[in-house]
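Onboarding guide, step 5: your first structure request.
Type a short instruction followed by the sequence, for example:

Predict the 3D structure of this protein.
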Amino acid sequence: MPNDTNPDARAPSAPSHSRTRPVDAVFSRPQLHWVGDGFRVAGYMNVVPNAARRLSPFLLLDYHPPYFYEAITRARGVGVHPHRGFETVTIAWEGRVAHHDSTGAGGIIGPGDVQWMRAASGILHKEFHEAAWAKEGGTMHMAQLWVNLPRSEKMGPPSYQPLSAGDMGLVTLADDAGVVRIIAGEFAGVRGPARTATRVNLFDAQLRAGGRVTFTIPPKDNIAALVMRGAVLVNGVARAGLDTLVLFENAGDTIVIEAAEDSHVLLMGGEPIDEPIFQHGPFVMTTREEIVQAYEDFHSGKFGFLAN
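The system replies with structure tokens like these:
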């Protein structure tokens, strides 16, 4: 299996005459690092060559594998920081995180919930382990995506979508194969609750050993799958184990995932945004001048106010 020491290695592809989407590569989990003092994550965008193009509209995938935090009484997480030009999407499977931002929005995301925040023209926010949960301690399992916005949407008003576990679309697979939660996009005629600026598919699949699921994705869309538990066989040819990221080529429209054991897979895809990307820290725009303006606006207080 290719890994992060040889990211250009190619997995076997399906026959060219098939509609099956070929697997480009399978990447092992990159080294874990801390975001603030509360989130122990692996940054998968760092191991995918030309990730800004191959995974557009996604700009970041920070995956927080299950990790036990001891009980603590002080706040643990990430303090006030700005964003402009994209959306942050935080998915919770275990643990509880409290969010507050400069628009006055906020809340707690717990198991099954998703926080979809559009920074757009500028926002300040902070994320900490929820206080009552932190005092008890427990296991946290989460992921955060950054989703780019097209230039026409980057300077629009910020907004916040609190998506609770009960809001998600849900498809029970045939033959007791498992279930798929639809966060964004559509699967098997069921739509997810997230409102997106461009076409985004975000599917959370739990498969029983031997279970199969088939996704149909437009060939134009970039697509990747993160194996968060177990091991799977993709399109009958590529094996992907725990914490691996499967990257697909832009050809064919069918993806078949079969679980070798009880498995949990996050499938993320979307229509590429074919525009320049200029990123500096927490700002993602289309020109250098727009980045300079973002810093000027932030320092002049145009992103609002939020206390630490």
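Each response can be followed by summary notes, for example: The radius of gyration is 19 Å.
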